[in-house]
Structures are given as structure tokens and as C-alpha cells.
Amino acid sequence: MLNEERRPCIYCGKVRTFSNEHVFPAGLGGDDHRFLLRDLVCAVCNTETFSPLELRFSRSSPAALGRIFLQPTGRGRGKKASIPTIDTRETTVLTENFGAVEAEVTATGTPTILMQFVFDGAEGVGVTGDASIDTADFLAHIESVLTADRPLIVQKLTSEGRKQYLVSELRWNGERLVHASQEVMEKPPKLCVWRELLERGPNGEPNRRPTLFRRRAGQLVLRAPADADVLAMLTRARKAVPIVRGRPVTMTPIENPVVALSMSLHPNDYARVLAKIGVNLVAHSFGEDYVRHHAFKAVKRAILTGDRPPQLIDNSTPTDPFHGVPADRHVAMVHFQKGRAGRFHVALSIRLYGGRTTWLLLADRAIRPPALEAILVVDYTTHHIEEFNNTTQFVMAYPPSPPIEYTRQVTADRYPRLPPVSG
Ligand SMILES: [Zn+2]
């Protein structure tokens, strides 16, 4: 809505159009419409800063692994629900015939070997892929790209944060593909081969074979070392299509596949996203006036800019208050501690995907809060959020299970050894 009252955004302090902000990120399972901050967060903070931050967090952070294995749906509900995905630099599965080959990991952590040509030695071309993928469709795609009038190879360039694309045009000289021309473009062409690098291992040799594969999202990618003869490889692929088509391949499923993932992480994202959940929860539970207090200025700045984010402290102890909450729920708790001169420390304890509980400081000179605790329990499977306003309510709903050592001790005390009976 248009900000007619001239109230500023609680994060950036600017008067701008507001947009709804999820108290708990929708992509992490918090898409519960009862938990929205309305008319508090501006559309600029929301879409330009928070959305890309949360997207990176949910697809390439330690939480991304929890998400891909445990969370069945992303944002949205029913048929519109998205399926969680993960952004990796490389995902491979080990095969008997070709060694490591291109794969993707999808919801519930299931690996799928992508349809691909594997370049073996100087001449050979092998083919592999998941049994569920349509081979004919893959071959038709390669053919349409490589037999085009001017087949295109595209390489992503990033200069000063701006994305550009180096597009090389090829042509068929009757025997093989040869280079025709090259230009830098602002937008990539639709039908092309994406060129990506196959990194070298510690001994300087690539640790697997080059491949031409198709991502589930549809892109055709050639992954080969930087000095590889790309034109020769694509020529081999073009010639291999009719041969493979005439000789159907049966894919044997791999039992207990070995999957390797490599990911680029942005270390600050983790603290920023957790801190934002904390500040949102403060706004939701203690009100607009409370969250606007200048004690929260530093943490908001850190969330917006990534500069000096709050330090994360591992708070998993045998007496972790979240022990009683099952692993299929996230838990977040804002709590207060009396500091000096009547001021309060405000901290967030949070546990995602049943992992370890993390603690971080949101503010240390806050004014007296209207209540001492606020707790959210997020069922990330159903996107249902429960709210508790004090720990008594919370502990009644999720009684902590005592740690094993404690149980042993109590049991031993309760059944003391009988003195030896003399006969
Ligand atoms: Zn803002």
C-alpha cells in the first residue's frame, strides 16, 4: 500500500511504499499468512535486499542442505508450492563406467544423474543419465542446438557486478564445427551451449571427464577444462547423436549412490538472516514502537548492509530449551536479560531443521520490553506457525526430554541397591 501516514520503514528509516514481510522467511517454511509484518517494511528493503539474501541463504548455505533433505515444499501452497532447490557449483554422482558425472539433488535429497554425453579419451563419447529422463528428448535438444545454422556457445562474464555474455558463433564446414565470430551481449540467446569450467584437482589434472549435459531447468552445458578443444568436443557430440539414437541405452540405477556437492557460501548471510528473523519477531510480538527504538539500529544496519553482523554463538547444551521440539520444526525465541541502568540485552535463540541451537545478540541497551519472551515454532512441512508469549506455555506444549545421563542418574537413585542379605 502507499505509505500515506509518512511512517518510515522499520529497517531503513525511509518513507516509501510498504510491502508485506514474512516474520519467518516463507522459503524456509514460514509462509503462514497470520505472520506477516504489514505496513512496517518498505518494498525496497523487502525486494531488493531481503529477497536475494533469503534466496542465497535457502539455496547456498549450510541451511540449504537441511532444507533440501527435510523440507518437502518451498513457498506457496498446494499445486502452486515450489520444490526446494539447492545452488551448487558442482554436484556429481560416482558411476562405475565414467567415474564422477553431473547430477542434481532435488527435494528429500534425492540425487538424479543428468542426461549427458561423457567425453572419454580423444575419440570416445559415452552416454549416461537417470532412467527416469527421456533420452530421445535430450538427443533432440543437442541436435537442435548443434545443427542450427549458427550454433552458439555462451560463457558468463561478470565485470563490476554486471552480468554479460560472451557469445561465440560456430558453423559447420561439412566435416566439423569451426569458429565463425564472437561478441559480448547483455542477454544470453535462448538456444545455445553454456560453457562451464571443469576445475583441476590438486595434482593439476581434471578429476573427472568433460561432459555435455542438460540441467533439469533445460540448459545444455559443456563442462570441460579451460584449455579443452571445445569445437572438437561439440563436433563429436553432433556426430554421436544419430549413433546413440539408433542404439537404445539402458540405464542401470545405482544403489546407495555417492554424491559430491560443492557450494559457494556467503558467510555473513547466515547471521544476517537469523538476525532479521529476530528483529521481525521483536516487531511482531512487542510492537512497532518497541522495534523502532535506537537500540536496534546497529543490528538493522548489519542486516541491510552485511557489515559487522552479530556473532553467532553455539548454544547447544544438554539443557537446551528446544530439546522437546521435534526436528521437523524450526524454533526461534527472543529473550531479554537485565543489563545496567535499567536497560536490557535482547537475544535470539534459534534452531533450524533440527540442527544446533544458535544464539545471537540483537541489542544491548534496549528499553524495558512489554513482555519477557516471544517464541515461534515453525512447522516447515505445513508452513504452520505457533506462537508462545512465555516459556511456561512453550514448555507445556513441548516438554523437554531429559538428557540420557540425567535419566540414568535418576533411575539409579530411585532404585537404590539393596544391602546384601545375610543368610
Ligand atoms: Zn526499508
In words, what does this structure look like?
By secondary structure, the chain is α+β, with helices and mostly antiparallel strands. The chain folds into two domains: 90-262, no CATH class; 266-404, no CATH class. 25% of the residues lie in helices and 28% in strands. It has helices at residues 43-59, 62-70, 135-146, 230-245, 267-286, 288-291, 297-305, 391-397, 404-414; strands spanning 21-22, 36-37, 90-95, 99-106, 110-113, 116-120, 124-128, 152-159, 162-172, 177-185, 193-197, 211-214, 220-224, 259-262, 313-314, 329-338, 344-351, 358-366, 373-379, 384-388. The strands form four sheets. An eight-stranded mixed sheet has the order 7-6-12-13-11-8-9-10, with helices on one face. A hairpin with a 3-residue loop joins strand 4 (99-106) and strand 5. It is elongated. 32% of the residues are buried. The structure holds zinc ion. Residues 9, 11-12, 14, 42, 44-45 line the site of zinc ion.
Q: How do the strands and helices of this protein lay out in sequence?
A:
Blueprint: E1 21-22, E2 36-37, H1 43-59, H2 62-70, E3 90-95, E4 99-106, E5 110-113, E6 116-120, E7 124-128, H3 135-146, E8 152-159, E9 162-172, E10 177-185, E11 193-197, E12 211-214, E13 220-224, H4 230-245, E14 259-262, H5 267-286, H6 288-291, H7 297-305, E15 313-314, E16 329-338, E17 344-351, E18 358-366, E19 373-379, E20 384-388, H8 391-397, H9 404-414
Parallel strand pairs: 8-11, 11-13
Antiparallel strand pairs: 1-2, 3-4, 3-14, 4-5, 6-7, 6-12, 8-9, 9-10, 12-13, 15-18, 16-17, 16-19, 17-18, 19-20
